[in-house]
Design a protein that fits this description.
With 360 residues, this protein is of the alpha+beta class. It folds into two domains: 203 residues, 2-Layer Sandwich (Beta Polymerase, domain 2), CATH 3.30.460.10; 122 residues, no CATH class. The chain contains 14 helices and five strands. 23% of the residues are buried. InterPro entries: NT_sf (IPR043519), RelA_SpoT (IPR007685).
């Protein structure tokens, strides 16, 4: 029963907390699973972390004392501490980019009951003081429909707090919490912290801009169509093809060309990046059109070799990267003689002799 006796209410809260501690953990884990599922099914994009915690009971009491006790007692309003701790269960979502925060927030708003929203990004950006970490805080609860489901009924009355941050904001929050006595430190230290905070903010924006620029590069590489035959650029697809084919090969246009010839293979970003660098080390002027031509002219021969090799060595693999290496060797043995290591090169050259002899 609510009272104005703080010592009594502390004892009551500690008892309530200990009696329900395991249930709090189950609720936290259930909320994390649900949010994970919602995020995966949405268009939020890559999320680096979804984690949760149950707030320490003494921290809950300190928060109540700091934020609510004086006002409630001044108004002679009775209270129970548990009714004022909206973040007893806390969930944190960390996105790669700042503009994912609003998308993630909308997903949650569409599935949970909103109690309160605190936009610390807007709050800090509207002042000259850059102190403090940014992020979106939301106090949420289960909707009536969700609360009626058997898997949620045991903790249907437990609200929870969600913090949504970008990866950079999350890093800054860790550092920000380590800075002691922020309101009392000298102005020169405050200025240094503000400069550091601004650098973090700039990094967040730059990462987003780099992502956007990267996506634009990928989009540009889809302008020129890819075919299975060499075409006369002046008579077929015109200037767009001429400009695109004249570009030095890079990860973006490599994916465009290789993806056309190996449609069922998923090229991993970091492997593509490394493979393209291997090509450019041997020929730093190698163009997208050269890659296209090397595959058109030689892929059929390489596939014949691959079939014979795999028939004789069924335990081995012959990936699209391996096929492209062999095509590059055939395209220009003088430049790409080292694209194959000694053993594979000797086997391929031996096979080529027999293959070409049979063609005569």
């Amino acid at each position: 029963m609510a009272s104005l006796d703080f010592e009594l209410e502390k004892r009551n809260f500690r008892k309530y907390y200990e009696n329900n501690r395991q249930l709090f953990e189950k609720a936290k884990n259930s909320y994390i699973r649900t949010i994970n599922s919602l995020i995966r099914q949405s268009d939020v994009g890559e999320v680096t972390k979804i984690e949760g915690r149950v707030k320490d009971k003494e921290e809950c009491i300190k928060k109540f004392q700091r934020k609510y006790q004086i006002r409630l007692e001044a108004d002679e309003q009775t209270y129970e501490i548990k009714n004022y701790i909206s973040d007893l269960i806390g969930i944190r979502i960390v996105c790669l980019y700042e503009d994912q925060i609003a998308v993630a927030s909308n997903v949650l708003k569409n599935h949970f009951k909103i109690i309160d929203v605190s936009d610390k990004i807007a709050a800090i950006e509207s002042t000259e003081d850059l102190f403090g970490y940014k992020g979106l805080h939301m106090d949420l609860a289960l909707t009536e429909e969700m609360a009626s489901l058997s898997k949620y009924q045991a903790f249907a009355d437990y609200p929870f707090e969600i913090q949504i941050r970008s990866m950079i904001q999350d890093a800054w929050s860790v550092l920000d919490h380590r800075i002691k006595y922020k309101k009392s430190i000298p102005n020169d230290l405050k200025r240094r912290i503000n400069v550091l905070s601004a650098l973090f903010e700039m990094a967040d924006r730059e990462f987003k801009e780099i992502r956007n620029a990267t996506m634009e590069l990928i989009h540009q590489e889809t302008v020129a169509p890819i075919s299975d035959a060499l075409e006369d650029s002046s008579e077929t697809v015109g200037q767009a093809w001429t400009e695109a084919s004249g570009k030095t090969v890079n990860a973006f246009n490599f994916l465009r060309v290789a993806g056309h010839f190996f449609k069922d293979f998923e090229f991993e970003d970091y492997k593509v990046d490394n493979f393209v660098q291997d090509i450019l080390k041997l020929d730093n002027a190698f163009k997208k059109s050269d890659l296209h031509k090397s595959l058109i002219e030689n892929l059929k021969t390489v596939r014949n070799y691959r079939d014979d090799f795999m028939a004789a060595n069924p335990e081995n693999t012959f990936s699209p990267y391996t096929s492209i290496r062999h095509c590059l060797f055939l395209y220009n043995p003088a430049i790409f003689g080292r694209i194959l290591s000694k053993g594979p090169l000797a086997r391929f050259e031996g096979w080529l002799k027999g293959f070409r002899a049979n063609l005569r």
